[in-house]
Here is the input.
Amino acid sequence: MKKNKFSLFVVPLLVLSIACASVGTGDPLVVRAEDLLSNSRVVYDAAMAFHFAQSTTETPQVYAAFEAFRSKFPSAWDALDKAKRGYQANKLAGTASLDAAVAAITSLLESVAPLVPVKKAAEITYSLTECYAGGF
Here is the structure.
């Protein structure tokens, strides 16, 4: 049950980080990508702290899921950062690479979210009220 509660928190968090409106005069796509970059690091850090503390008691499947996440996350994060920078440099090129990078990192985060207990959700510092205040 704890896994489902955490999923109910993290998945909407990810959706809001992607769907949240921009603050100020910034480009909404860039702001959303930057939000996802920041928030995904917090989720990654919490997931890895949990994994490292519990790795000796994890089932082989859970251990493998965390290790796959640990090995894939840095390159997915870098790809999103590069796609965001590429979009900023040349907006006429379109959003395909940025959209693909967002989808890839979101999928990775969703793969590990159900494995981390609810109490770790408190470590995620993203403010949902700020996002709601900005509108969608």
